[in-house]
Structure formats: C-alpha cells, structure tokens
Amino acid sequence: MTTTHDLEQLKDLGVGRPAPAEVVRLYQQAFADFGALALWSSRAVPDPTIADALAITRSLRVEGDRNARQLAERIEGACRAAL
Fold it and tell me: What is the pTM of this model?
C-alpha cells in the first residue's frame, strides 16, 4: 500500500534529515535560476534539509513561471523519493 502525504506532512518528515545530493542540486538550481523572481523572500542555506527544499516549492509555484513550477515538481518528487 502506498502512502500519500501532503506537502506539510512531507516537510514534517523532512525536518533534520539532510537532503540527498539530487535534492541539494535542485535546491541550488532553484536559487540560481529563480532567486530574484520567485524566491526573493527566502534565503538559501548551505546544507539544506529535505524540509528546507520543500519549503521553497510553494514560492516557486506561486511566484514563478512555468519553468519554476516544473522545478518545484521535480524537487517535491525527489524529496518524496528520499523519504
């Protein structure tokens, strides 16, 4: 049986868990590509947790363009796979 968690539940599960390399890469890409556009209210952390990576996905979806939304989906998918 597969369990589906909403974004808030995923963030809770990811607190204190270091993000795997793929999630870190996507997190850094998000700030490099969309920092000024969509993540202006967030600050990148050097060693993000899974919760840190998930925390920026809402801003990418709401403030960003189509490419930012697609990146948010990729981040969320990578975080789900890591949990």
Answer: 0.85
